[in-house]
Amino acid sequence: MAKFQIQVYNQIASHGLHRFPAARFTVGKAIEAPDAIVLRSHDLRNVPIAPSVKAIGRAGSGTNNIPVADMSKRGVPVFNAPGANANAVKELVLAALLMAARNIVPALAYVAALPPGAPDLERRVEEGKKAYAGVELPGRTLGIVGLGAIGSLVADTAIKLGMKVIGFDPEITVDAAWRLPSTVRRAHGIDELLKQSDFVTLHVPLVAATRNLIDGARVGLMKPGAALLNFARDAIVDEAAVVAALRARKLRAYLCDFPSPALIGEPGAATLPHLGASTEEAEENCAIMVVDQVREFLDHGVIANAVNFPDVAMPREVPYRVAIANANVPNMVGQISTALAQAGLNIHNMVNKSRGEMAYTLVDADSPVDDTVIAAISAIRGVLSVRAIPVDSAAG
User: Fold this and answer.
1) CB 166 within 8 A of CB 119
2) Which of 52, 95, 143, 202 has a CA positioned 20 to 30 A from the CA of residue 364?
3) Which phi and psi angles does 335 have, rounded to 5°?
4) pLDDT tens digits, one per residue of 229-239
5) How many CB atoms are closer than 10 A to CB 247?
6) In angstroms, rounded to a whole number, what is the distance separating the alpha carbons of residues 348 and 345?
7) Which domains does the chain have, with CATH numbers?
8) Can you give the pTM of this predicted structure?
């Protein structure tokens, strides 16, 4: 069996890339016809993606740098690594929470501006500190918008610090709900959460529904002197509204991971250079997770944590497997079964799942599936991609 070709962009942690066995995978940056792409922040949206590409793996959580809709039309899953960097982001949010509570950023700026040789330095330090008196966290209310892997870790940490926590997430999963501490109070909506919180932290993906989620009207609902933290995506917050609130002293502080011309140098705003997942541990976790997912997909057609496909897994009991990505339309499974039956193939096992407009089918057959059968399935209206995945002795 020919080796799979993996094209790599950015610096991917070696602990992850080494999980592509050298006997079955060639990994490099100069790959002409890649079977898969693994990347971090490289922007693929305006880059030609080879027709040979069967999967894309993002060693991180966001996929805004990948043309996901175009890949869906080609039947190409886009994998990410949800939760792999959760602890790193949680720790940065905790640091930002403390910085906001104790006015650490403006206090540092005040001291940095003092002339070191001034004879009255001690007096000026003592006088200046009055302007930077902060608050303590116990008893304060933290509002968390988005209660996934990161949001739930932030909630747990805040509770251990003695804070009250109120959360809102209309898309919360059963697993995420189980992870939440029982003392987290559920808000009925974002507006309710904003009105009651001394600090608000955002942990939602950037989609059409969350763009400018925190706009001028919602900033106006926040408590006077509240602090807003955004370590999710920049466009979730209307920067102009936040700057106006900072200047009006409506907000105590805005801390985020997204520098911009509007925020740099703005008193009350503290921006970090995209540090959320920038730890050795997070980079390794993300690389390991996404490499394992891409490898399982190429070797066995298994899908886990694809942003545009359903999760699909099926144990292999026979050597011959076909993976089919198709539009989620009626009678697709029937047409696939008919194509296999007409070729004299017996279906040993089958699983079909859908997600929105996308569906994915794995079929195990009792005998080899040749190119004529693949061509027949490909010709079915609505089929986006088809490939035979025989078991390689090295893959198991």
Assistant:
1) no
2) 52
3) -70, -35
4) 999 999 999 99
5) 12
6) 9
7) 1-84+282-307 (3.40.50.720), 86-271 (3.40.50.720), 310-391 (3.30.70.260)
8) 0.82
